Amino acid sequence: MAQGGPAATVEAGAKPVLFEIFGEIWKVQARLGQGVSASVYQVNSGRASTAAVKEFQPESRGGDYGFHKERSVLEDIQGHKNIVTLYGVFTHHSCVGMSTRCLLLELLDVSVSELLLRAGASLCDRPQQGHSLWLVQHCARDVLEALAFLHREGYVHADLKPRNVLWSADDQCFKLIDFGLSFKEGNQDVKYIQTDGYRAPEAELQNSLAQAGMELEGHCTAAVDLWSLGIILLEMYSGTKLKEIMRSHKWEDNSAAVIDQIFGSNNEAHPAIPVSHLRDLIKSMLSKNPEQRCTAAKALLSPFFSIPFAPHIEELVLLPSPVLRLLNLIQDSHLHNEDEYEDILEDMKEECQKYGSVVSLLIPKENPGKGQVFVEYSSSSDAKEAQKLLTGRTFDGRFVVATFYPLRAYQRGYLYQTLQ
């Protein structure tokens, strides 16, 4: 473990401004989150390297235990593409003599919680509620891949919720974070697991008994993670938080009927067959009996994952990628004049290279994608900078609309002709 040297802090208990990590000074750029026992910061080393630091508070309840717990779990499960990468651990010594234990982690992007908030904010802008089937499918597959791996290794995440599922712009997938409540199945060492609103019935019972000083025979299993994911997917599809619905008598009496009602009220927005596949998949995750709940491995075999979908334009704005898609730039007449077309290609490449290293640039002459400009950058950070600076600019009197575009779709030549 690397020992951090003296580093400046604002004041005791305040947000640190610097961390010394592995002999190098990293500057704190922003606080990303704060909990009872730890805070998470975005840090930069000054060499265009960014990461996240999770700093555990020594005086807080369970702070030191939480550090050792999360460190041991993360070190044991490293290497899966849908689980956050742990770069290292270190001790931070502040200038006021306090020492805190820290994890240096991969920096990720937008969380599913933020995506749900954006979906709710945009309901008035379009008749369709919730997120596209493309995003629901993408998130479901990525999280199930992570859970299948985690469960094969004998671990239960035990705190799956929208805030703990984050998008990776570099790897173009969703990843799980926060393993502070995780445990080896059969060796549960925490009494209170999962977050209200995403807590499985058996975990609810166990938590209630523990609060009353009683102990339930047996422990929660990996099935609690499938329950949480089922709720997350239902919220993504409906665009509605389900916490109050789950407290209702209707849910208690017949949750399957409530799920049918949610899907029935939103069935005009999607084709019927894939919607029925998604509904059945979610129902299989939300069986009240944990023994009847589907496993992550079995859920991945659902026919829902065999159908291709297109994303909403809002989702392409929110999910960073190394590829940008520029709209409202090219007139049809420019595409059919070879000299003008070549000039436009050169001009666009020259302009886009101002913001980062351009790997490729494509302007299709025919549909799908006719007249749209696709720019692949060497990194997602370059693309994010370009998207920020290009959006709203005018070229030849036209306002530029810049969204991200899925890297794999671009590389395969799959250009969405229309977006739902």
Category by helix and strand content: alpha+beta
Q: Which CATH top level class of the largest domain fits?
A: Mainly Alpha
Largest sheet: 7 strands, mixed
Whole-number count of domains: 3
Residues in helices, as a percent range: 25-40%
Number of strands: 17
**What order do the strands of the largest sheet run in, or round the barrel if closed?**
1-6-7-5-4-3-2
Overall mean pLDDT score? 88
Oligomer: single chain
Return the CATH topology of the largest domain. Transferase(Phosphotransferase), domain 1
Distance between the termini: 49 Å
State the low-pLDDT regions, or none: 1-12, 123-128
Protein name: Serine/threonine-protein kinase Kist
GO molecular function, one term: RNA binding
Keywords: ATP-binding, Nucleotide-binding, RNA-binding
Domain Protein kinase: 26-305
Can you tell me about this structure?
- This protein is an alpha+beta fold and 420 residues long.
- It has 3 domains: 104 residues, Phosphorylase Kinase, domain 1 (2-Layer Sandwich), CATH 3.30.200.20; 195 residues, Transferase(Phosphotransferase), domain 1, CATH 1.10.510.10; 92 residues, RRM (RNA recognition motif) domain (Alpha-Beta Plaits, 2-Layer Sandwich), CATH 3.30.70.
- Helices cover 36% and strands 21% of the residues.
- It contains 14 helices and 17 strands.
- The strands form 5 sheets. Strands 1-6-7-5-4-3-2 form a 7-stranded mixed β-sheet, with helices on one face. Strands 13-14-12-17 form a 4-stranded antiparallel β-sheet. Strands 8-11 form a two-stranded antiparallel ribbon.
- The protein is flat, with a radius of gyration of 24 Å.
- The N and C termini lie far apart (49 Å).
- The N terminus is likely disordered.
